[in-house]
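Dear H.,

Thanks for agreeing to be a second pair of eyes. The structure we're designing against is below in C-alpha cell form, covering all 71 positions.
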C-alpha cells in the first residue's frame, strides 16, 4: 500500500510512505517513510527514513516530529 502525499515539517519536502503486511491478520504494518531528495539542509534529515511496525503511519516513532498533521 502506498500512502497519500506527506510533507516533511523540516523542509516542506514531499515524502513517500510504503507499508506492507506479512499476513492478512496482522494488525501492524511494516512502514518506510522517506524522501528521495531530502535536502542536506533539512533539520530533520537524521530522522529519515522513518521505519517500523505500527497500525498507522502517524504511530511510528518520531512521526510527530517529521510528518505534518493531516487535514
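And this is the sequence the design step returned. I haven't edited it by hand at all.
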Amino acid at each position: 500500500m502506498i500512502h497519500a502525499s506527506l510533507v516533511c515539517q523540516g523542509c516542506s519536502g514531499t515524502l513517500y510512505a510504503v507499508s506492507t503486511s506479512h499476513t492478512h491478520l496482522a494488525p501492524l504494518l511494516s512502514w518506510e517513510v522517506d524522501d528521495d531528495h531530502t535536502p542536506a539542509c533539512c533539520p530533520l534529515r537524521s530522522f529519515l527514513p522513518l521505519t517500523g511496525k505500527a497500525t498507522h503511519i502517524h504511530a511510528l516513532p518520531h512521526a510527530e516530529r517529521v510528518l505534518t498533521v493531516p487535514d
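Two observations from my side: The chain has a mean pLDDT of 84. Helices lie at 63-66.

Warmly,
E.
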